[in-house]
Write a structure and sequence with these properties.
28 helices; 8-stranded mixed beta sheet; single chain; alpha/beta; 7-stranded mixed beta sheet
């Protein structure tokens, strides 16, 4: 009879090893430890494996598992013997196990650090990347249990398994003996293994989103029998968009005699559908969703869009309902958009899917859009549809995802899809929260290096429906980190669309130099002022006067674009009066032909909305369905419409500018590759969008050479590790003493100027004699520390008499010495007082911050931030990115300070925090930057066990 010791003789069940993963084809599986309760599952799994796969596993015919085999493969101590299974629908599809061995190859226990590993994958699931995912997870388990090396014996003909090991990226050794290939590899992650892992993650997550956005067949579950309702509306939207796949309507209440609804095949259950269903759109009450998910899972549906509400947004009960929904869907290998979603759109001509509540399909284009909020999703689509009062148009939508509560598919997944989507040139995202900031920043940096990523991030707390990791970083800091990653961070939906439309069809500016020309002196001056305010370098506006003809505009734009001192051009226009004023088509052709000569420079138009001008401009370039008429066929138009659809040079197929009927519903999209000139109803909107494009272009150029993390010969990394270990042995988390802080920082070449306690006037005098005059007397009480503005810091005390008088003044003003905690410190060379901080945030990771010391910088929030590890180029930009940076470089005739020494200090702090994640907080304040050298006058360091880093472990989906 088994005892509890027999069942689990070494460790309790390690629930933290359980994980959901996305496989190579976009499906999902669950990985978990194998237990004694899995005997029947193991036998059933083995029966479905082919004889060939069994032979490759056991090197001999092995038709069935014996009772002894089943016992061995299901009884593990979770230390020296571990087995993991990949499951779908609760059934095994693959297994992996390791057995710790000694140098003699026999079973062993710690401290032996080698183990034999073996896999078995069901034939139907081979080629899906299951073994690669299992290898990542079993390697992480082994490292946790003190195993540093795996050995595997594989038959030479088993090429698939050999490839799993060799492609993993670990440092390995290969040999051939007795007809068997023996592979040995270290389990310590390498740069290559992390790169392989992240490349696999990108491909898998991108394919999982692609399966949702480009399904071959769709079922809408919850289609009402009467017109109206969410399900019936979505069914109509899919049908009316021209979806080319198979479409089905499902409602369990359909009478048996109903075969069609609105011309779409009708079914009472997903199970009744003949043939595969790739996507199910669920629009039933929340309490009915579990039954629908079960039907979909059993039928092999690949993904769900859950429009139903009543989940985490409704409170604790709904939150638990949402967790159960995700667990149920993942058990069947399905991914979910939603719940409480607005839907998805894909305008690709071979898909044309509008599985959303948007009643009209947007024009196909090059912008990908993601919104967590349904209301914001509606607003975004409306901005691109709108004919009047907005940015006149440039492009349409490639894909649109409204994720709702984003219980499963998130912005990170959609970024993975957009990264290599050939149909998307610009990505726009509205994020109410960021569930995994560390991963989002990594993905955003990679995406931004290939295509613009424009983001609006909510400032308030995350909506109830969102599972968000806690972060201690202020919103401004998170925004700064996003900008560091190349994200174009804007504040409003209007700015999101303005910047996105410019970037979708215009080249990136080569620099900040802007030419301004137009027929309004006032509008030109206003544009000039806005350029200065945005940090651009505008030239004086060229006034063409209100009598300017189309030829005048053409000549002026030609000259501006040909000027080597110009990187972009803003054309300003107001309605002209007189018979000689150009018509819209004439002006459009004039600007188009001028721009054709220099395709590498962006051109924008700023117009004034008067009379029919705004309507004509918006109609000319709206992304709503339109039809193009021949010039001159419309009547009653205003004589001056400067923002016609204007192709720019570089287009594969030129388009003749023409008037557009804003009332038509027929869609006419610009030819592929055409660059269209955007027009804005206000100078500040155009210039702000241009400034974002300029900054992004600069980031792209700098990202090509990100710099390096320098090595310093005087850093004692091992000594610092020993010291940290000794200090942490005293407690879980502690702020170490001044002496310990100086010792630790000293091991990284960061000297701290010594300060001696002065509890009495005599002690102060003795400290001053030891340090040497002149000295500083400082109060270190929390309310006075670093507050020279309150009088708690007295400098340049030249002798003992002056020191004693100052000591008496401080105690008279602020209280007893035990309250002030005064210290005496030798004077540092004069310079600029700065502050350097580093903190490890549980959500975002390690962050290095820099700014000038003092209350003014704190009030203004004038701090710059970078993610650790910081490169030499990033340290240089960090110093220069605060608004008060001119004080470091000789502002108003002052002496420039030693910024290279400051940058080196920043790099050393970055190295300290990166090398030792137990250093969870560092503050150096003040750091005096002198004309020659830097002096650290105060420092605090906090140690704690490092927070877990999921970005270095195996691939997993967010836990639910």
């Amino acid at each position: 009879m088994q005892t509890s010791a027999d069942r689990q003789d070494r460790h309790q069940y390690p629930a933290h090893w359980e994980a959901d993963v996305v496989l190579r084809d976009g499906g999902t599986a669950r990985i978990r430890p194998i237990t004694i309760d899995d005997a029947d599952r193991l036998v059933s799994f083995y029966e479905q494996v082919s004889d060939e796969s069994k032979y490759y596993r056991f090197f001999a015919p092995y038709p069935r598992l014996s009772a002894k085999d089943v016992h061995r493969f299901t009884h593990h101590d979770f230390v020296d013997r571990v087995g993991l299974a990949a499951t779908i629908g609760g059934e095994f599809i693959a297994t992996v196990r390791y057995d710790r061995i000694g140098t003699d190859g026999l079973p062993a226990s710690a401290p032996a650090d080698e183990a034999e590993v073996a896999f078995l994958v069901q034939d139907a699931h081979q080629g899906r990347g299951v073994a690669s995912a299992l290898l990542e997870h079993i390697a992480a388990v082994a490292r946790e249990r003190g195993i540093r090396r795996f050995a595997a014996e594989v038959l030479p003909a088993n090429n698939k398994m050999i490839k799993v090991f060799t492609d993993a990226g670990y440092t390995q050794k290969r040999s051939f003996e007795d007809g068997v290939v023996r592979l040995e590899f270290d389990l310590e992650p390498t740069d290559r293994s992390l790169a392989v892992q992240r490349a696999r993650e990108q491909r898998a997550e991108a394919r999982s989103v692609r399966r949702l956005l480009a399904p071959g067949s769709v079922a809408v579950v919850g289609v009402g029998r009467a017109p109206g309702g969410v399900g019936r509306s979505v069914l109509g939207n899919i049908r009316d968009a021209g979806y080319g796949g198979r479409l089905h309507a499902v409602n369990k209440a359909f009478p048996a005699h109903i075969e069609e609804v609105d011309g779409v095949p009708a079914h009472r259950s997903v199970r009744d559908i003949d043939g595969p269903v790739d996507l199910a759109v669920v629009a039933v009450p929340a309490e009915q969703v579990p039954a629908v998910v079960a039907e979909c899972g059993e039928h092999g549906v690949q993904g769900l869009v859950v429009l139903s509400a009543g989940y985490a947004e409704s409170g604790p009960e709904g939150r638990e309902r949402q967790r159960a929904l995700v667990r149920q869907a993942r058990a069947y290998g399905m991914r979910i958009i939603g719940p409480n979603a607005f839907g998805i759109i894909n305008t690709a001509p071979d898909v044309r899917l509008n599985a959303s509540l948007a009643p009209q399909m947007p024009r196909p284009g090059r912008i990908g859009m993601f919104a967590q909020s349904g209301a914001i999703g509606i607003a975004l689509l409306s901005r691109l549809h709108r004919r009047g009062g907005g940015v006149t148009g440039v492009t349409g939508v490639s894909t649109f995802v409204s994720a709702g509560n984003r219980a499963d598919v998130s912005g990170n997944d959609v970024l993975q899809y957009w990264y290599d989507d050939p149909e998307t040139d610009v990505a726009l995202m509205y994020l109410e929260s960021i569930g995994n900031p560390r991963k989002f920043t990594r993905l955003a940096r990679r995406t931004a290096a290939a295509k613009p990523l424009v983001v609006v991030q909510g400032v308030g707390s995350a909506p109830q429906g969102h599972a968000v990791r806690a972060t201690r970083l202020p919103h401004a800091t998170v925004s700064a980190l996003l900008r560091q990653a190349g994200v174009i961070r804007v504040e409003t939906i209007t700015e999101l669309v303005d910047a996105g439309l410019l970037l979708a069809r215009q080249p990136l500016p080569a620099g900040p130099r802007v030419a301004i020309l137009g027929n309004s002196e006032s509008l030109g001056v206003l544009t000039y002022d806005r350029c200065l305010a945005e940090g651009l370098r505008p030239s004086r506006p060229v006034d063409l006067t209100t009598g300017a003809t189309a030829e005048d505009f053409h000549r002026a734009l030609t000259r501006a674009l040909a000027d080597d001192t110009c990187d972009s051009v803003v054309v300003t226009a107001i309605p002209a009066i007189g018979e000689a004023s150009p018509g819209d088509a004439e002006l459009a052709e004039a600007l188009r032909s001028a721009a054709a000569a220099v395709p590498g420079k962006p051109v924008l138009v700023v117009h004034v909305e008067l009379g029919g001008l705004a309507e004509a401009l918006s109609a000319a370039a709206s992304t709503a369905p339109q039809a193009v008429k021949a010039p001159g066929t419309e009547g009653g138009a205003h004589p001056f419409r400067p923002a016609e659809r204007l192709p720019i040079a570089g287009a594969e197929r030129p388009v003749t500018a023409g008037a557009v009927d804003s009332g038509s519903s027929a869609a006419t999209a610009p030819p592929e590759g055409t660059r269209l000139i955007p027009a804005y109803p206000a100078a500040e909107r155009a210039v702000r969008a241009l400034a974002e494009a300029v900054r992004y272009g600069q980031w792209r150029r700098e990202a090509m050479d990100p710099g390096k993390v320098p090595e310093y010969d005087d850093i004692d990394e091992k000594g610092a590790a020993r010291l940290i270990g000794e200090l942490l042995a005293r407690g879980e988390g502690l702020t170490i003493s001044d002496a310990e802080t100086c010792e630790l920082l000293g091991k990284y070449g960061i000297p701290v100027r010594r300060a001696l306690p002065a509890p009495t006037p005599d002690a102060a005098a003795e400290a001053a004699r030891f340090l040497g005059y002149p000295v500083a007397l400082k109060a270190t009480a929390p309310h006075l520390r670093h507050r020279a503005d309150l009088g708690g810091v007295r400098l340049d005390l030249a002798d003992e008499d002056q020191l004693r008088r100052t000591y008496a003044e401080l105690t008279e003003l602020f209280g007893k010495p035990e309250e002030l905690r005064p210290v005496v410190q030798g004077m540092a060379p004069r310079g600029v007082d700065t502050v350097v901080r580093a903190v490890i945030d549980p959500a975002a990771g390690a962050v290095l911050s820099f700014g000038l010391a003092g209350a003014t910088s704190q009030l203004l929030g004038d701090m710059a931030h970078r993610l650790v590890p910081v490169t030499d180029r990033e340290a240089t930009s960090l110093v220069r990115s605060i608004r008060t940076a001119p004080l470091l470089f000789g502002w108003r005739g002052s002496t420039p300070v030693d910024t290279p020494a400051l940058e080196e200090l920043l790099l050393r702090v970055s190295r300290l925090v990166d090398d030792h994640p137990e250093v969870v907080a560092v503050t150096l304040e003040p750091v005096v930057v002198a004309p020659h050298g830097v002096s650290v006058l105060g420092a605090t360091v906090r140690l704690a066990p490092p927070p877990a880093r999921d970005d270095l472990g195996p691939r997993t989906m967010p836990a639910y």
